[in-house]
Amino acid sequence: MSRFNALSADARWQAVWDERATFAARDDSPRPKSYVLEMFPYPSGKIHMGHVRNYTMGDVLARFRRMTGHEVLHPMGWDAFGMPAENAAMEKGVHPGAWTYDNIASMKAQLKRLGFALDWSRELATCDPAYYGHEQALFLDLLAAGLVYRKESSVNWDPVDMTVLANEQVIDGKGWRSGATVERRKLNQWFLKITDFADELLDGLDTLEHWPDKVKLMQENWIGKSQGLQFRFALSDGGSVEVFTTRPDTIFGASFVAVAADHPIAQGLASDPAVADFIAACKAGGTSAAEIETQEKLGYDTGLTAQHPFDPAIQLPVYIANFVLMEYGTGAVFGVPAHDQRDLDFARKYSLPVRRVVSDGDATDPLFAGDEAYTGPGTLVNSHFLDGMDVADAKRTVITRAEDDGWGRGTTVWRLRDWGVSRQRYWGTPIPIIHCDACGVVPVPKDQLPVVLPEDVSFDVPGNPLDRHPTWKHVACPTCGGDARRETDTLDTFVNSSWYFIRFASQPDDQPFDKAVAEQWLPVGQYIGGVEHAILHLLYARFWTRALKHIGKLDVAEPFAGLFTQGMVTHETYKDPAGIWLAPEQVEGGTVIATGEPVTVGRVEKMSKSKKNTVDPSPIVDRYGADAVRWFMLSDSPPERDLPWSEAGIEGAWRFVQRVWRLVTAEGATTAAGDDTAITRLLHRTIAGIAEDVEALAFNKAVAKLYTLVAALEKAQPSAARADAIATLPRLVAPMIPHVAEELWEALGNLGLVADAAWPEVDPALLVDDSVTVAVQVNGKLRDTLTVAKGSAKDALEAAALASPHVQRILDGAAPKKVIVVPDRLVNIVA
Ligand code: ANZ
Ligand code: ZN
């Protein structure tokens, strides 16, 4: 028997879809619009399995929505700016642009090879001036609206390479290339006022019904709205210090006050060399929250004391501490070691009292043991007038007392900071600003956009190539014509990805997007991507969309109506006896192929280059065909869970594609009359079930239903019902395995493409299961079951039960004493 030749079918149908522009989205279509989007890839060089899984899921939904009468927008592009291109330039001497466009070309070929239903006419790369020029225009719009400003802010400074480092280039407080201890430095940088939208971004989460709760929670925590109390402690030198707390309830547990190294009180003491040294030491280490969190807690006792607001007899020592940030709250805190981990670490180090004031029920004595702070709910203890209250009550009581007595006020604070978008790098969107000594900060006039990156740059020395370029930054001031300098910072690449989905929806030459056209498509109906973007990318895109709404450019509040975060593709890890990671292809039968040494099999983990457990999709597609790879990606694991890659799995997928092909091509020769209601019912249940599963993105369930249907059809006797089901099969599998589906659609003599065909109609009457299983009991014990028509009459059920051979054996000719019938459920015979 002949086989489905995946390789020629893939090539053939991919060419047909291309030629006919089958998946081009029409703005003017009368059909309902559906926007399906997967997070666009960074062009690192090659597609990985994570991409394949992500894009296959989106593809199934996009193809399914087309078949159900939607005009689908399913675009693809490239998140093409960023550090790796500059690293390649530094390491291999290749220009970032050349490297990026090479990668785009090969990855595009790989995506095409998988037969994704993408509208390639809308392809974009964020490193293209035709994209970033419009981004510059939007930046200027936001600037004009007061949503962009410039201020001094800390960066990671590598003192050996003399360059600013991105957070990810700081590893354990050291520069990734030089190994030098990173310092914090102040630079003038550009910020977007995301904090203006903090309330909206928080409240908007409530409208996102089709987002995972965990992602909404992560966004909520990141925005971090907290209610607190701001108040002043009187100091022993006659001055005062204002602190901010979210736990005013714990005030009687305070054992110290701490201020940031940049705090005026610390600065005021810096004439003391010991203080100056300590302040300098606080500046070491990276600027990221994670770095600060993990640093050892250090303090300097100023000798000052602070007076407790409720009890003048209590004097708290005042420290300068490295874990207090000047940028948050008031830059000063009171520390409650028993109920805050940082404070506890600090108190243990400096032998300060640790006093319990919140009890979780058991322990109530003031002495708090251990090194783990208690941050949970509970009842106030050792706290005078607060004793016995719960935390919320105590908070309210303290805030009210502070306000009534006039020494403090309740406040709302946000964890969210404004978005620093300046990067001192080459491969990014140039910030369209000119600095003039006479006129100050001057926006580049819009008719001079795009500000294009210079091509002739060098990467042989550290630092920003734009800054040291001999001519690029020297320009005439647009206002006064005098000598001026271009801004040499470029925009954070998260800006690029904050609006690409709008540009996909509408991409005129002369403006970033056409409002009316973009609004026809937006919001994105279903967005699919990795959970690693659950916070920043999604928050920035939500902010950007709201900012555009605010300035009247786009009337969309939330950019992504539906969000799905898929699981990872995983694989076993391997090490040789020397502990060196081995790639799967270096291992066979528990030994290293090259040396015959035994292999240690490690955990199943996310495929990653560092552990060498990646499997390159390309050779697999070439061997098994696109459909088998797609099918494997959808089978077995629920899409939100991890998917363990396995050779057996891909072979199973390949066999299934072959089975479908054999089933349909063999049926072509047989014609049979006759009914088979079981098959007809199964078909309709499957049509309806797949539709439901695909809409719920439960692809593994849809796959399971297709397995069941195909197995049943393989077994069934020829009948008209079976022939009908087989003829329907190409449409049912088309979203998942579109190449074999097209091949079969054509083989069955259909005109046009299965990709353009309508999803099969369901007869709702056939979905109702009209038989039920009824239990037959004798004296309460189950003896038999009956399959009968739903709603069968009581006497019919009684008769059927009494006719059961099992029942007759027990009754042994005697008449039953009593028969109880519960229709559709149970017949109980009392003997
Ligand atoms: C006393 C206290 C007792 C606190 C307790 C916490 C637990 P969130 O919730 O993230 O807003 N804090 C305030 N300003 C700070 C700064 N500039 N640098 C470092 N820490 C600062 O955190 C608010 C809490 O973080 C505040 O409440 C304060 O410590 C600390 F059992 O005050 B708390
Ligand atoms: Zn000027």
Description of the structure:
The protein is an alpha+beta fold. The chain contains 26 helices and 37 strands. The strands form eleven sheets. Strands 10, 11, 12, 13, 14, 15 and 18 form a seven-stranded mixed sheet that branches. Helix 19 crosses helix 20 (647-667) and helix 20 (647-667) crosses helix 22. The two termini are 61 Å apart. The model has no long low-confidence stretch (mean pLDDT 93). The site of ligand ANZ has 20 residues, from strand 11 and strand 15. This is Leucine--tRNA ligase. Keywords: Aminoacyl-tRNA synthetase, ATP-binding, Cytoplasm, Ligase, Nucleotide-binding, Protein biosynthesis. Belongs to the class-I aminoacyl-tRNA synthetase family.
Number of strands: 37
- Determine the number of helices (DSSP H or I, runs of at least 4 residues): 26
Distance between the termini: 61 Å
Shape: globular
Strand content: 15-25%
Ligand identities: ligand ANZ, zinc ion
Report helical residue fraction: 25-40%
**Average pLDDT score:** 93
Biggest sheet layout: 7 strands, mixed
Low-confidence stretches at least 5 residues in length (pLDDT < 50)?
none
Radius of gyration: 34 Å
Query: Pairing-aware structural class of the strands and helices?
Result: alpha+beta
